[in-house]
Amino acid sequence: MPDDHDESGEHADHDAARAWLPPTRAIRAGRHEDDTSLAPVLWPTTTFVTPTVDEGREMATMIGAERFYSRFGNPTVRAFEDAIAELEGGESARAFASGMGAVTAVVLGLCSAGDHIVAQRQIYAGTQLLLQMACPRFGIDVTFVDGTEPGAFAAAVQPGKTVLVVAETPANPKLDLVDLDEIGAIRGPMTVVDSTFATPLGQRPLDHGVDLVLHSATKAIAGHNDASLGVVAGSEELLAWIWGFAVIQGANAAPFDAMNGLRGLRTLAVRLRQQAETAHRLAEALEAHPAVESVRYPGLESHPQHDLAKRQMDNYGGLVAFDLAGGLDAGRTFVESVELCQLATSLGGPETLVTHPASTTHVNLTPDERERSGIGLGSVRVSCGLEHPDDVVDDVLQALAAIDG
Ligand SMILES: *Cc1c(COP(=O)(O)O)cnc(C)c1O
Fold first, then answer.
1. What is the position in ligand 1's atom list of the atom closest to the CA of 228?
2. Least crowded by CB within 10 Å, which of 6, 323, 329, 370?
3. Is 215's C-beta closer than 6 angstroms to any atom of ligand 1?
4. Which residue spans within 58-197 are E strands per DSSP?
């Protein structure tokens, strides 16, 4: 086709797209020019007809083939991948059956026996298990550093041996931040940031020079607790390597979940804004409460990295962490006394969820391990949902009152 369609709608659309703000892009991303269905089209098929041997061979040998066999690629999944790549400013993306599917593909797709990884100590428990338990079995060494300490990642890099730097920001469980400019400035190893807590609308690690950004889209991206989904975005070249491992790994995203991921993206901006508003109000209420020892929210002046948050985040997110003065008993009483909020793991959905790691997810850790993970006996995490902020704050306050009573 000659490229002479200056006045065509297509061209005008592309010009406009360059100026669109991220919330607008989230509405339009992942749509193809020939789509007339406004909603994402679901392709449940596992396989595709390739009418000739030549077409079959082409599909079988093409990186990222979209219409060969759905473990290799699938049109619904591709639409979601394209949307994430656009929102993150990456050339390409690959979706997975879960966030851990994405993490595992990055680590095992890019690292080999004899390689070294620098990772952050404050990190999602599943990622930590992969790095601490599985990587050594495959001959991959891992050094853990404090992600909040300036220069810690770069200082732990072993030239010629370190192939990957793994960071997460904001990080589980205390919403510690990692300086994205610092990760992006590391030369030599590849760098990856787990940006799940921020979402693609909260920060853009690739803009800071980071090589790969990944998400558990199970959380805020899909946003309704009904899809298990992961995604990683970055350069064409790195995504080709990751894809090569992913087709063997077999943790490909289900088309139905990818469709729900796309649906989630369309409302992500307003959901994130609402959740952040509630989180901010809740954080302020908690800071003023005598039963609360300390509060962590990147949007609070009191967050030790608030200046960094202002610099690299467009939205401080819907998660709040706090420590109860009364320790284990207070934590347990609190999470069992909430009435609107619910005790459940996960985050980023419409329902406000509370967790008390010391008595649930991290109950098997020794006190030493627990402290090193930044979890106190009275640590509580709240994922603010979409209920009216007054109701969420009132419920938390009445549960705090139950601790003294
Ligand atoms: C939940 C989560 C993961 C893992 O995602 P799954 O979809 O549960 O596999 C990874 N990183 C972070 C920060 C998470 O919150």
1. 7
2. 6
3. no
4. 92-96, 116-120, 141-145, 162-168, 190-194
